[in-house]
C-alpha cells in the first residue's frame, strides 16, 4: 500500500502504464488488480482513522523506496509506458546482473516504479 494525495489520479496511472485493473475505485481507497491477484493498494492521507499511514508533511516519504513489479509481457509494458507518456528515469535496459529487462519510471506523486521482464536464466 502506498499513501497518496490523489487516489483516482494514481489509480489511472497504474491502470494506463502497468495495465492493472481497478478492484475497488474511489477517492479514498483503491485496490489494483492483475486478474484476481491484488498487486497494490492506494490510500488517501486524510481518511479513516489510520494513525500509522505516515505523516503527509514529512518530505522523506518514498525516498529510497522502489515499488518493483514483474511482467511476462515487457514489450507490452513498454508500449503502455510510451502511450501514456510516463516519465522514464532509465531504460528500457537489460540488467546483466538480474538477467532481465527493466524500465525505471517516476510514478504517481514521485514514487519510483521499476518493472522487470522475465529473467533469462540461460544467460
UniProtKB/TrEMBL annotation:
InterPro entries: Glyas_Bleomycin-R_OHBP_Dase, Glyas_Fos-R_dOase_dom, VOC_core. SUPFAM superfamilies: Glyoxalase/Bleomycin resistance protein/Dihydroxybiphenyl dioxygenase. Residues 1-118 form the VOC domain. This is VOC domain-containing protein.
